[in-house]
From TrEMBL:
The keyword Protease does not apply. InterPro entries: 7TMR_DISM_rcpt_extracell_dom1 (IPR011623), 7TMR_DISM_rcpt_extracell_dom2 (IPR011622), DGC-Regulatory_Protein (IPR052163), GGDEF_dom (IPR000160), Nucleotide_cyclase (IPR029787), Rev_trsase/Diguanyl_cyclase (IPR043128). The chain crosses the membrane at residues 215-234, 241-259, 265-286, 307-324, 330-354, 361-386, 398-419. Keywords: Membrane, Signal, Transmembrane, Transmembrane helix. It comes from the Bacteria. Residues 462-597 form the GGDEF domain. It comes from Pseudacidovorax intermedius. Residues 1-34 form the signal peptide. This is Diguanylate cyclase.
Length: 600
């Protein structure tokens, strides 16, 4: 297969960022086609009635920016400031900014029969530091209720409807137009997609959201356990960062949904605010560190690895600044930009690793692309490039959970690769061990192989016999016909030896023309003598080499455990002495027992 063919599969998924861009452009084009109310329609009081999706107010909001942050309700109701309220041309498109905004709008009942009905004004934000509701004000200027003050800087008990998003309960006594003012002090102040609901309709509409949040949290808790198990089992740094990324993502989502203030820090809003600031930055840092290790960027793309490290340091500094600096919005702008930049960097790293046929990179690329597609909508809306849509936060939350799931699958894929590599390494080690324990020329065991087998039997206290064999006349074969002829003799005799013994026995070449046999069990002397006779006879048979018959003889020394020794060295020494005696016997049988000092 050609190099181009090997790399071809990675080129398709490399276009994921361009697909995300095309989808975003399509979304922007779809938004631009929405119908725009006329000026008179926008200034007219909004007729509220039962609406299962809530009565939208965004197009009817008159906005005043309080640059001094000191204006009160009496100030903004004065003629001087009333004339400064404006209707934005595109209310749901605008950049977030750290400022104070006043909103003014008029409401009336569509059906006077709804006069006793309680209504709920919902401001879809959890990040507002301080939000104040004033009114409703009757046409004569009289307020129907006391002001309500709540927000992230206030305990959970200040929430009028005990909802994560900012909301306000009110009633209209009749069908007259009533004016409402809302003051918003936020690091992320913008024009919100405010809606008026019947309280029962709102609670019913949030059931799907509560279920969605519950499923998301359940999956993330499961991924936390999964990451913890991987960390405890394998102990690698990559699983520390995966575990931390799951934990920080969970904290970020809980902060974005308002659950951080509602549950763990209901009486400590400052802690909830710190979590809201820190968790997104920490999540991106941990995600970057997990990605660089999963993709092995230090090996595949060192320059990308250095860029990821640099981004992590910048985000760490931004997170600290977000807690103590004078412009905390800078932290979120950096985090938002870093999410996009980091996604691009990691996608590039995944492409590089994927082109090297590192398959976990493909899964990682899918996860990053999914999140990039979803998070781009909310980030671009925060930058004023897109209009805000009700489902953007849910889309991002779902994509974040999906990314973590895909990352978990990629980590499992990496584990499989590591397991396969370890198995291949173990097999290679076994091959090396077998090579060390095997004589390359004859295929018989080496001296190391002989020692391993003998020591195993010695540990098990098994009896066995050792036959030490030395070829007679082998040197003359080498001298007359060359080493190739000698090698052929050695290989042939090793084969004959293996054919002469059982599978449970061991044939080893100790070096040169010296062989050894390990015979399992406790064979009788007669059996050993018969085997030695057969081996001597087989050695005497000529070896055909290039048409020439090559002949050698064989001398054998026999030692038995435990009679002749209790260690391999003792047995080999006893067998060697017996073999030496057999060589000295000019007309002997060709073998000698160690137990017979005078000969066989």
């Amino acid at each position: 297969m050609s190099r181009a063919a090997v790399r071809r599969p990675s080129t398709g998924w490399a276009f994921a960022p361009w697909l995300a861009l095309l989808l975003w452009l399509g979304l922007a084009a779809a938004q631009s086609n929405a119908a725009v109310p006329t000026q008179a329609e926008r200034l007219a009081p909004v007729a509220i009635g039962r609406n299962l999706s809530g009565q939208q107010l965004a197009w009817h909001l008159q906005v005043l920016e309080d640059s001094s942050r000191q204006l009160g309700i009496d100030d903004v109701r004065s003629p001087e400031w009333q004339s400064r309220f404006t209707l934005p041309a595109e209310p749901l498109r605008g950049r977030e900014a750290d400022r104070v905004l006043w909103f003014k709008f008029q409401l009336r009942l569509a059906d006077p029969a709804d006069a006793p009905q309680e209504w709920l004004l919902v401001v879809p934000t959890v990040s507002t530091h301080d939000i104040r509701f004033f009114g409703p004000f009757a046409p004569d200027g009289r307020a129907l209720a006391e002001p309500v003050v709540t927000g992230m800087r206030h305990p959970w008990a200040t929430r009028p409807a005990s909802a994560e998003q900012m909301s306000w309960r009110f009633q209209l006594p009749d069908a007259q137009p009533y004016t409402v003012y809302v003051r918003v002090d936020s690091t992320f102040a913008r024009i919100y997609d405010m809606r008026v609901w019947r309280t029962a309709d709102y609670l019913e509409s949030t059931q799907d959201k509560r279920m969605f949040d519950g499923v998301s949290y359940g999956i993330m808790f499961g991924l936390l356990v999964y990451g913890l198990v991987l960390l405890l089992v394998f102990g690698e740094a990559i699983y520390v960062y995966y575990l931390l990324s799951c934990l920080c993502a969970l904290g970020a989502i809980a902060g974005f949904n308002g659950h951080t203030l509602r549950y763990p820090f209901a009486h400590w809003p400052a802690a909830a605010g710190a979590m809201y600031t820190l968790m997104p930055a920490l999540w991106v840092i941990c995600k970057l560190q997990f990605g660089r290790r999963l993709l092995n960027l230090r090996y595949f793309a060192p320059w990308l690895d250095r860029l990821v490290v640099g981004l992590s340091f910048v985000l760490g500094a931004a997170a600290v600044y977000g807690l103590f600096g004078r412009h905390p919005l800078l932290t979120f702008n950096l985090v938002q930009a870093s999410v996009v930049l980091a996604s691009g960097v990691l996608l590039a790293g995944a492409v590089v690793a994927g082109r090297r046929r590192y398959w976990p990179a493909v899964l990682y690329c899918v996860g990053v692309a999914v999140l990039l597609l979803a998070v781009s909508s909310i980030i671009f809306a925060a930058w004023g490039w897109l209009k805000w849509q009700p489902g953007q936060t849910n889309l991002t939350q779902g994509a974040l959970v999906m990314e973590l799931v895909v990352f978990a699958i990629a980590a499992a894929s990496r584990l499989r690769l590591v397991l396969r590599s370890e198995q291949a390494l173990a097999a290679h080690n076994l091959e090396l061990i077998d090579a060390v324990r095997t004589d390359a020329l004859t295929g018989a065991a080496s001296r190391a192989g002989l020692e391993v087998q003998a020591n195993r039997w010695l540990r098990d206290e098994r009896p066995f016999a050792v036959l030490l064999l030395d070829l007679d006349g082998f040197k003359s074969v080498n001298d007359q016909h060359g080493h190739a002829a000698g090698d052929a003799v050695l290989a042939t005799l090793a084969r004959r030896l293996r054919e002469a013994v059982r599978d449970s026995d061991l044939v080893a070449r100790l070096g040169g023309d010296e062989f050894a046999l390990l015979l399992a069990g406790e064979p009788r002397r007669e059996v050993l003598a018969m085997l030695a006779d057969r081996l001597v006879a087989q050695a005497a048979e000529p070896v055909d080499w290039e048409g020439q018959p090559l002949r050698v003889g064989m001398s054998i020394g026999i030692a038995c455990r435990p009679q002749d020794g209790d260690t391999l060295d003792e047995l080999l020494r006893a067998a060697d002495q017996a073999m030496y005696r057999s060589k000295q016997q000019a007309h002997g049988p060709g073998y000698s027992f160690a137990a017979d000092p005078g000969g066989a």
